Amino acid sequence: MSIEELARRAAADTAEAVALEADVDAALVSFHARRRRHASARVLGVLVALAAAAAVAFLLIAPPTPSSTPPSVTRGGWCGSDPAVRCLPGSVVEVDAATPYSFEVPPSFWPSLMVVKDGSTVEAYQRQSGVKAGVTVLQDVRPVGAGDRLAGAEEMATWVASRRFLDTSAAKPVVVGGLLGWQVDVALRPWRAGAPHPSCNVVQGSCRPLLEQDAGATAWQTGPWQGMVSRYTFLDSDAGPVVIWSWAFRGDWKALAVNDELVASVELGAG
Question: What is the pTM of this model?
Answer without folding.
Answer: 0.74
